[in-house]
Design a protein that fits this description.
248 residues; alpha+beta; Ribosomal Protein S5, domain 2; 6 helices; globular
Amino acid sequence: MPSFRADGRRADQLRPVIFEAGPAPYAAGSVLVRFGCTQVICAATIEPKVPTWMKQQGVPGGWLTAEYSMLPYSTLDRKPRDITRGKIDGRTVEIQRLIGRSLRAVLDLRKLGENTLWIDCDVLQADGGTRTASITGAYLAARLAIQKLLDAKKIAESPLTDSVAAVSVGLIQGAGLLDLAYVEDKDAEVDFNVVMTGGGQFVEVQGTGEEATFSHEQLQSLLALAQQGLQELTALQTAFLAKHLLKF
C-alpha cells in the first residue's frame, strides 16, 4: 500500500461510494452520489418534447442532454456562479458534454419516444472526481426516471441498453492509483478519466500527462486498474437499483 495515500486506501481501492435516492423529489429520478468527500446531486427530468433541430431534420425518437455545475460553496475557495460571470466556463461545458455523451452511449433514443431527458448534476462538495461521480450517479437518476415512463406506459420498453459508470486513475511517484481524491489529483503525474458500460465496453478515455509522459505499459496498467474499479461501481449500481426498483 503506497504510503502517500492520505486516507490510507490501497492503490486499487475506491473511496467509500454511497448512493441515496430521492434528494430532489420534484425530479422524475434523483440520486445523491458520494465518492468519499465528493458529493453530487444527479437529477433526471422528463420533458415531453424534443429539440427543434430534431424536428427540423426529421430525426426520430427522443434526446438526452446534461448540465453540470459546481455550487459556490463546493470548494475551499468560493466558486462564482456562471450567471454572475456572464458565461459558462470551458471546464463546465466539457464536463456536461461528457456526461451527455456517456449516457447517450447506453440509450436507444428511438425507444425514448418524443421526450427529452434532462440530466442535472450539481456538485455540493468537490474533492476530486466530480465528473466521474456525476456520470455514475446520472445513470441511476436516468434509470429511475425511465421507470416512471414505463410505469405510466408512456414508452413501451426501456431505451437503456446497458449501464454506465466512470472512475479516475492516475500515476503518482510512478505508482498507479484508483479513484483520485483532490490531494492526489493535483499532484498526479498522469491522470485519466475512464467511462465504461456495465458490459465492459469503453465509452470514453480522457488521459494526459501533467508535465510528464507515460509508457504503453503504464497506459495498459491504468486501464486495467480503471476496469477493476468500474466493475465494482457497476455492482454497486445494480444493488442500488435492485433495492429501489421493483424490476430491473
